Amino acid sequence: MGTDTAARPIKLACRNVWKVYGRRPGYYFDSRGYVIDPDALAERLRAEAHLPAVVDASFEVATGEIFVIMGLSGSGKSTLVRCLSRLVEPSAGEILLDGRNLLAASGKELIELRRHAMGMVFQNFGLLPHLNVLGNVAFPLKIQGKPAKEREARAREMIALVGLEGREASFPHQLSGGQQQRVGIARSLAVGPELWFLDEPFSALDPLIRKQMQDEFLRLQRMLKKTIIFITHDIAEAFRLADRLAIMRAGKIVQIGRPADIVLNPADEYVAQFTDDMPLLRVITAGDIATPANGAALPEQSVAADTSLEALIPQLASGVGAFTVPGAGGSPPALLSASAVLAVLEREQARRTRE
Amino acid sequence: MTAPVALAPSPQRFAIAPALFPWCVLAVLAVLCLLLKAELPWLVNFPKEWTLPLATYINAVTDAVVAVIQPGFRALSALLDAPMRGTRLALAWLPWPAVMLAVVALALKSSGERLAIFALATLAYILLAGYWPQSMNTLALVLLAVPISTVLGFLLGVLGYARPRWRPVLLGALDLMQTVPAFAYLIPLLLLFGFGPVVGLIASAIYATPPMVRNTMLGLDRVPAAISEAGLMSGCTRRQQFWQVEVPTALPQLLVGFNQTTMAALSMVIVAAIIGGFEDIGWEVLSSMRKAEFGQSILSGLVIALLAILIDRLTIGFAKAPETGPTRAMRWMTSRRLAMTLAVALALAVVIRLAAPDATLLPETGLRMQMGAVNQWLLGLVRDYAWFFNGLRNSVLYCLLLPMRVGISGSATPAMWGFVLPPSALAAYVVLVLALAVLVVRRSGWRAAVAVVAAGLVLYTGFLDLPWPIFILAVALLAAQVGGPRLGLFAVAGFGLILVNGLWPQLVQSLYLCTLAVLLCLLVGGALGTWAAHSDRVSRILKPICDALQTMPQFVFLIPALMFFKVGEFTALIAIMLYAIVPPIRYVEHGLRHVRADVVEAVEQMGATPMQTLLQAKLPLALPVVMLGLNQTIMAALSMLAIAALVGTRDLGQAVYVALGKADAGMGLIAGLSIAFLAILADRLIQAAVARSAVASH
């Protein structure tokens, strides 16, 4: 499981990151030599009038992966993503970008990193009200001191990428929410960053526009193959977009895994409740439950590994008994039997009746 | 309130809230004071022997300091004199057609054709009325004061934004700068800089700086987090972040600050004419008022009013785009066309000056030269209708002003009301007040009842005969209970300072004048605001009137009041009310119009009559906004107090004004600080009350 992501190099690693608000957070992390028990420390912090916004967060994101951090409001997900870009200074822990410790970077180095290596999209767009679309998209390049012609050409390219041609001269207040966020996306991509942070980018949009923007986002990612940290509180969005996702609660990451792992094996009651409404057949893909063929004869019918089980139902109904799932990147093909799909269906049925 | 403390066996009936207890003690003390008044006169009149000659000390220190640093300031004065002369000469050199062209073009760019027409009419009026040179002189001072204030205010605002630790100090200084009447700091300025228009310039710059500081801090504080984070994530350095992200985002607010600064500078330049007496428009108003040339004072007052409105609309037009989008005329007047028009205006000026180097090009005799007949007619009008104006004045004086000042006990004499109240009437009065208090306790709780008893006491003795220990203790107690012990101490310290400086009588005069003005403003303005909230037509009519009243320099309000009612306290009351009536109208209307619609709908759905909806839902919900309006009203009344001293009052404002005449820096400063103290105390009290009610309602 997860063979394809594990094979790729790690772009960003986050190790035991804490963010504590309060009078003197530093005091609690001056503890070289013995191991911190995260839960006990978080409890002690709360008892002593400190707010642990991020508790001992650890994860790794592979190059080209969409890593979604999901949680309800106040769970610390926005603070965590700001720690990753050092908009918020973590209280403790380590953040490695391409193996280099980001927290050791000087102010100057950090500015260089932000100018070239990172892009970020904000929930409330963060567009500069005095600049038009072209000016906003070209802004990061202007900051770098790029010549006007070059940055304009690049900005036009980005504007075309997000489908806003013709609106270059409009000002932010003349655009709809969806259009404003397209500008925000174009701006964050203008410098060609490898690491792309999106902090609830579609939460301020209408549901219909949100769906459209998610499709747009997936289309862009297929083209650009960025390494993405995507923050959301919308579980449907998280499952739709994520390669892997982390679920946060009260500052702590309670589970990390691929969508199918999380619905099939929730770490605790909280995650189970959280994911209760996600239809298994839509979340689980052929690749998730296919078993190695081990030399057995492969059926004629073949489906891609990322096909959802739901899409297989018509074929199953027409009498197909098993599928071949071609392996990615030279790994051997796998076998998916109708009974495996039916087992998932049965499980879904059991969830429904339990309610 | 938390659980009441039981003082009697039956806690249900005799429970006394702990906060009420000190008030009971105070009431007993008050009665004692009233009974002992005859034996112990110091309870009412603070004895002269007890005062401290603080003003003399301050003067001694000031004299010593001034003697040392004066040369430096005189040099600065000489330094500022050059650009001032330059600006005045330049404006005098510009022929009026060129000025008119330039201003109309700016108006067109700022707010479109309507403002352009207004600008044209205003300038034509100034020209025809014969006040062109004076207006240009006033403008010269404003043109110099505004850049100084704007730059200084911006720098201080940035300091307050970037160094939050310094902010309390800065805010305190701003409060003082805005509440100490300008007359008070004119004195040290006069000592330092010497007599002349430069003092006016510096006073204007000081007075006009605070709005820019406040708006700079507000604008920078309000830059949305997403925008500043977007700037940081674009890799901005600190400098780029400030100039390319934060300042442009805050720009609309900065322009609002610029507008307020300009208006403050204009207002102050005109007031500064009192000491300046160089040929500007403020001096024209003042001298014509002193000569009782009402025709001229109306003409010149109108110049100030029109000029103020023009400058206000011009600067605000650049700060805020109209809600309906720019008009065609605004779009037509591009920056390029504006620059070209300004260049044409300059060329025109050069051509005219080349052709006629010395001609003033002004109409030979302005309208103001032909005002003799009008003056006679106005004087006649006032004389003919004296029965009305005097009647109005006397009835208000005897029915409202005097009872407030000396109380019912003082007014009920043969000399004043023509009769003496028998003891039975006094007893009836006491019973009435107590009965009212009991009624109020049942309906609205003990706090309202304490207010009723206090009002009854004040009405009986009058402000003037109120025993000062009781007054100070009552205010301090109120301050401590509403805003905490520090505010209580602040009140005691402030009143103590006033007391030991022998300014108690003036304080009392100020208090009763302001209290009356504020009450009347709340009554009249509140009614108008309520009406406007329920009728769009009334709102449409009131809006431009309020705009105009608020834009005008305070000075202007003296003209009509003085014309109809002559010198005296009633005139001051009218002038104060004219200036202070706008906030209650505005805030009441705003508060009522923005009450949450769902609550009003719910109340109406229950079958409430419009009056019930207003009194039981809308007004209580709008109360925080109305309280802000009350705050603004008090501030306006106190700031007008100093100006109103010109028409003859006996209050703190007059003390400042007299000190100005005698160049008594110490007394001026202390009296000025006393007014500032009253303003700051009132402000903190109301803010604390609003904060408390906000906490209570959550």
Give a topology summary.
The complex is a heterodimer of chains A (355) and B (698).
Chain A: H1 3-7, E1 10-21, H2 38-47, E2 51-62, E3 66-70, H3 77-84, E4 92-97, E5 100-101, H4 107-116, E6 118-121, H5 133-143, H6 148-161, H7 177-189, E7 195-199, H8 207-224, E8 227-232, H9 235-241, E9 244-249, E10 252-257, H10 259-264, H11 269-274, H12 280-283, H13 286-289, E11 291-292, H14 313-317, E12 322-325, E13 334-337, H15 338-354
Parallel strand pairs in A: 3-8, 3-9, 6-7, 7-8
Antiparallel strand pairs in A: 1-2, 1-4, 4-5, 9-10, 11-13, 12-13
Chain B: H1 11-14, H2 21-36, H3 54-93, H4 96-111, H5 113-129, H6 132-162, H7 167-179, H8 182-193, H9 197-221, H10 225-233, H11 238-271, H12 273-276, H13 281-290, H14 294-319, H15 328-332, H16 335-355, H17 372-384, H18 386-411, H19 423-444, H20 446-461, H21 468-483, H22 485-500, H23 504-534, H24 536-551, H25 558-565, H26 569-580, H27 582-593, H28 597-605, H29 610-644, H30 652-662, H31 665-696
Helix pairs in contact in B: 2-21, 3-6, 3-8, 3-31, 4-5, 4-14, 4-16, 5-14, 6-9, 6-11, 7-9, 7-31, 8-9, 8-30, 8-31, 9-11, 10-11, 11-14, 13-14, 18-20, 18-23, 19-20, 21-22, 22-31, 23-24, 23-26, 23-27, 23-29, 23-30, 24-27, 25-26, 26-29, 27-29, 28-29, 29-30, 29-31, 30-31
